[in-house]
Amino acid sequence: MSLIVLTYLLETPGSVEALAAKIASDQSTGTFVPVPGETEELKNRVAARVLDLRPLPPVTMPSLPQQGSGPYNRGEADIGFPFEAIGTDLSALMTIAIGGAFSIRGLTGIRIVGLKLPEEFRGAYPGPQFGVAGTRRLTGVTDRPVIGTIIKPALGLRPPETAALVGELIRSGVDFIKDDEKLMSPAYSPLEQRISAIMPLVLDHEQKTGKKVMVAFGISHTDPDQMMRNHDLVVEAGGNCAVVNINSIGMGAMAFLRKRSQIALHAHRNGWDILTRHPGLGFDFSVWQQFWRLLGVDQFQINGIQSKYWEPDDSFVRSFKAVSTPLFSPEDCPMPVAGSGQWGGQAPETYARTGRTVDLLYLCGGGIVSHPGGPAAGVVAVQQAWAAAVEGIPLETYAKTHPELRQAIEKFGKDA
Amino acid sequence: MSLIVLTYLLETPGSVEALAAKIASDQSTGTFVPVPGETEELKNRVAARVLDLRPLPPVTMPSLPQQGSGPYNRGEADIGFPFEAIGTDLSALMTIAIGGAFSIRGLTGIRIVGLKLPEEFRGAYPGPQFGVAGTRRLTGVTDRPVIGTIIKPALGLRPPETAALVGELIRSGVDFIKDDEKLMSPAYSPLEQRISAIMPLVLDHEQKTGKKVMVAFGISHTDPDQMMRNHDLVVEAGGNCAVVNINSIGMGAMAFLRKRSQIALHAHRNGWDILTRHPGLGFDFSVWQQFWRLLGVDQFQINGIQSKYWEPDDSFVRSFKAVSTPLFSPEDCPMPVAGSGQWGGQAPETYARTGRTVDLLYLCGGGIVSHPGGPAAGVVAVQQAWAAAVEGIPLETYAKTHPELRQAIEKFGKDA
Questions:
Q1: At what angle do helices B313-324 and B285-295 cross, to 10 degrees?
Q2: Disulfide: which of A13, A212, A368, B264 matches A206 by Cβ 3.0-4.6 Å?
Q3: Smallest CA–CA separation between B399 and chain A, in Å?
Q4: H or E element that contains B49
Q5: Is A391 within 8 Å of chain B by CB?
Q6: The pTM of the whole model exceeds 0.90
Q7: How many CB pairs under 8 A join A and B?
Q8: Chain centre distance of CA A316
Q9: Cβ-proximal residues to B306 (8 Å cutoff; 6+ apart), any chain
Q10: Beta-bridge partners for A73
Q11: Is the model's pLDDT at A145 over the cut of 90?
Q12: ipTM (interface pTM)
């Protein structure tokens, strides 16, 4: 019998074994009093079971505040859910194996730290339409990271002002430009007007130089029908990418979009921190990202080394490995997107810690736009930083013969 | 200028004022270095601002585990986002005002505890199609709570076995029957077969007695197109309600469904606990429920008094008040659904603490099904408990002349 196996990090003043057993029961066949018609045969067919339980040292501080005093016992429990009880529906998986477990009484911590899907999920979802190979093909970048930037300020520019900035960024030689995830279609910058103002610049540059800059427009909308109209506007204007706020729209809307999409879907995960920031609660990214990859994310933002956010570098590295590890085949890997506070200075460590790969989209906001020599020098500096990283030359050494990188180090490196 | 006002409970080893100001900046116009083209005029148009900051006593234990030692300063900050910066798009609101704030460095706790939408949201969303009045009309229950039950076990019954149970429940006189939220459309119980097996029993009973029991089928699916087909199956079979796992499908899919729905949408919020259980992190229900009410939830599960889950009674009472408080008009209130471990014994306290209203759907699983006299006696006992509560008669007194209630107290009351 095929199993969907979830690993739960559990914490309780009581018995971890009993808690794991309760989760398995509650989340499949259990009920609060025995009811007529409930037979052992029925239960056995769909009951979840604790497969393994690995004790961990107890802690004195509970993840969820408690009245009592510890210690709080901990353990990692593998619970197997029969495939027959869930099927391939991800919303059923989320409901049965994850959602309800967080409501159980008596636990002081619960975090989903592992998910192993059985072979039945192979081919059940479309996965990325473009992923790494498609992003490389569309951008024409083959032998280094795709280098991207973000239109700033996040909010407040009208379409002509945005287009003026984008024009300068296109001329800078950057490969990828995106709307800030917070920019969707407010009254002062309707998406349609933004596309109309920007895409001619992209196409004109392509005609002149052969290089088509990938511009990711914020198409997210609460209404999937409207989101599809937004998608269509991008396609009709010759665009090839969109920013999607996956957490805000939800799994269903992502499935809806992917089914109809003709462009690369760049996932911003804002809101994700709510689900992961406390180490004893929520999810590991390695679990959560599986849902979105099956649903079809092409490019996945995962912060970066020395980001400006709370996330430690180790966590970014784990996320990078997670999205770069095939679920069922290499084609189900999205392109990792390293961003937040990046300017090139993090290239050596990023390269060293992510398996010495250049298969990533490296996003620099101010790191490109605010380079002392202007955006074009900013792009060159980032390319130089990556060349140095790949060649194993310290940035300071490389910068001696590469003035753009030197300027970047002088401006941005002082805080590093 | 219209504002969308969010209230954040903040906790930090540093300055709460500085943290609030950083959220306002980061979540609207901020960026990590000043960039060309960013002018004060642009900023002013869309910048979020801290409107008020109410200090709270510091705490010694941080909500997010920290290396250092406290104290951790706390305060409640009202931050106003210009309506122009967001518009009425709820996914934009979630992204701009909520999602990103949880990623900020230096905080040790953040919880969204208030949301006040401006008049521009009036009429921007459909809201409940049925709500309290529609649920009463469809069930024919006018002067007491709608009494419901849940098919158990949660998983494992095949459609004929389910239909046999449902037939007995229909004959019991119950007003409402629902699939467990974990039952959607697994291979052993495809939704279509379940509907085909159950709905003739409902319609037959209606023809004989005039009473149409509302049966809520689990129509959730990752793919909104499939979810709509599931909805249509319910409609075509003469059904009038569906269970929707709102957290698993997400906001977009809920909007998609509501736009096309012809039936009452019964929201199960499983997974919600991840977002609310730690008192220093996540959301208050009073905030989160606003999104789903605007999107169109008709019946909202909010646990109950003495539930079997972690949620304290006070929290249930607050949730009840939240969903019963109009956002813009009384029609945008869904029917509150009190459930989990209910058997009638909680009726007096539920009634006393929720404003002495009977406008709720009162869900009893084992409390009805496992009544010593059978489900029909179980339904009568629950009705008796509510009659006693409304008349202000102690249950023990009322039970002296009402044997079904007495049996219920004897069986279920011993744990209470």
A1: 40
A2: A212
A3: 22
A4: strand B49-59
A5: no
A6: yes
A7: 344
A8: 10
A9: B313, B341, B345, B346, B349, B416
A10: A12
A11: yes
A12: 0.96
